[in-house]
Amino acid sequence: MNGNGPKRGRGRPRKLECRETLLEAGRDLLLSHGLRMTVDAVALRAKVAKTTFYTYFQDKEAFIEAVMLRESARTMSDEEYRAAIGGDLREVLVGFGVRYLSFANENRLAAWDRVITSANDLYPELAARLYEAGPGRVYTMLAEILRQAAQGGTLRIPDTMAAAEELAGIWYGHTILRVNLKIRCPLSAGEIRQRAERGVDLLYRLYG
């Protein structure tokens, strides 16, 4: 090779790009086919060799878990979580709520619930891992933010996990249920922000 060909830019490393392509393909197939999704189908959708799949993932279960973690990170990534700790509490919680609601507003939540439910019927241990990688991870992060707020004296919360569940319940409510049942249209960006703020304001009234 003479070295005169096009050079790769400074963008995302090729290995990371390939892994992300596989995860994107897996997400689409999980939502449309559930656990019937096959490794062959993922490789075909991602346009890579099947051996490439196993370069990044031990097996199908580990891959599905990675897909769930990736989706959960859309609400808050590990990096964003670390950056949020110590910031203005109200803005951190409102931002969390906006992203939580934006994800729940996509009409896909019911499909992800079906994936976990079907896993529970066939592989209970996998179902538990998928829950911890997805919804459980979000609740744990939210509870930890509230725990630190309580520890610092900003809020008086005796049970932070219960408070996290209460806040998420206020955000979700009947409205998001109706969105996911397709009884009403998805919320606008302004409605999402307003709902996130209202939930945080109610939390402050309860524990402020």
In short:
The chain is mostly helical and 208 residues long.
List the helices and strands and how they pair.
Elements: H1 14-33, H2 39-46, H3 50-56, H4 60-72, H5 78-84, H6 89-104, H7 109-122, H8 124-133, H9 135-151, H10 160-180, H11 189-207
Helix pairs in contact: 1-2, 1-4, 4-8, 6-10, 6-11, 7-8, 8-9, 9-10, 10-11
Key words describing this protein structure:
globular, disordered N terminus, 11 helices, 208 residues, mainly alpha
Provide an overview of this structure.
- It is built from 11 helices and no strands.
- It has 208 residues and is an all-alpha fold.
- α1 packs across α2, α7 (109-122) packs antiparallel against α8 and α9 (135-151) crosses α10 (160-180).
Sheet with the most strands? none
Rg result: 20 Å
- How many helices? The count is 11
- Low-confidence blocks of residues: 1-9
